[in-house]
Design brief:
This protein is of the alpha+beta class. It has helices at about 1-10, 30-45, 50-55, 95-105, 260-265, 270-280; strands at about 55-65, 70-75, 80, 95, 105-110, 115, 120-125, 125-130, 140-145, 145-150, 160, 165-170, 175, 190-200, 210-215, 220-225, 230-235, 245-250. Helix 2 (about 30-45) packs parallel to helix 6 (about 270-280) and helix 5 (about 260-265) packs across helix 6 (about 270-280).
Length: about 280
């Protein structure tokens, strides 16, 4: 899904000549200023309908476990990957809230995703904490159903395993307010309605079969798509152990750039600078 959305964005990207930009190191900066500056630089290279309504930003905080060096960056996302936590004893499913809570807790990076600490001058398994700064009008939740583990019996061999736990996700109202760290707006709150689910059956991500259950925006009814076959369904029918991607849309209001347009207008210099440069790029 990420590769598809990125590819469609690039096909529709209004920026033809991309300038070189450096990432903003936000440690020591006020978060609002760092967010505006990071998004301003993003717009110098990326400008499409996907940027307008499907991309948001999260605040990534890394800490070196050896020396305590910290790094904060505001990164752009178009989907959120959620860990699937084990179901409680006696329960047949995991609430989506538990997965969101685990995402908010943070993690320690493994050796395959090590961060280069500029103080230690080496790659370290840093402590990483991600907070959603804002959320776009259309948000994609990716359930991390596939794990990659080293086989203890065969040196170096990687085993891919699928997590079949059923995640119980809301159909008509998902409130992400507790997880949004940045500004929230009463006329367009981060409250969402499900409109699509991509499902996977099979043992690995490279095999198996994909289907979809989708809410029709015209009549409000649900339909299941399985290759060339289409039939009536329901949102509840998609709550299975195969639900892989969840597609949600903001229920009320709309926020271009996930609300960054409003933040940048409050920071007038940053807004004027990026719009001026974008105009020059289009000539």
């Amino acid at each position: 899904c990420q590769y598809l959305m990125d590819g469609l964005h690039e096909d529709l990207n209004r920026v033809r000549e991309k300038p070189y930009v450096e990432a903003v190191e936000a440690f020591g900066m006020e978060d609002g200023k760092a967010a505006v500056e990071s998004w301003r630089k993003h717009l110098l290279r990326h400008d499409s309908i996907f940027v307008d309504y499907t991309q948001g930003m999260h605040r990534s905080h890394l800490t070196c476990p050896a020396c305590g060096k910290e790094s904060i960056k505001f990164d752009v996302y178009s989907s959120i990957s959620l860990p699937i936590v084990p179901a409680k004893e006696g329960s047949s499913s995991v609430p989506l809230k538990a997965c969101l809570d685990q995402f908010a807790v943070g993690e320690q990076l493994d050796e395959h995703n090590a961060w280069y600490c500029p103080s230690c001058k080496r790659h370290v398994c840093a402590l990483k904490h991600i907070q959603l700064w804002n959320t776009p009008d259309v948000i994609v939740l990716h359930m991390k159903r596939f794990t990659f583990e080293k086989c203890p019996d065969e040196d170096g061999k990687i085993i891919r395993r699928k997590i079949e736990e059923t995640v119980d996700f809301p159909i008509d109202r998902l409130d992400l307010s507790p997880y949004v760290y940045g500004p929230k707006y009463e006329d367009a709150p981060p409250v969402y309605r499900l409109f699509g689910v991509s499902e996977h059956t099979g043992a690995t991500a490279n095999s198996g079969h994909y289907t979809a259950t989708v809410r029709n925006s015209g009549d409000g009814n649900w339909y299941r798509y399985n290759d060339s076959h289409v039939g009536s369904s329901s949102g509840d029918a998609a709550v299975t152990g195969g639900a892989y991607l969840l597609f949600y849309q903001r229920i009320r209001g709309s926020l271009r750039w996930a609300g960054m347009e409003r933040q940048m207008k409050d920071d007038e210099d940053g807004f004027k600078e990026v719009t001026g440069k974008k105009r020059r790029n289009r000539r």
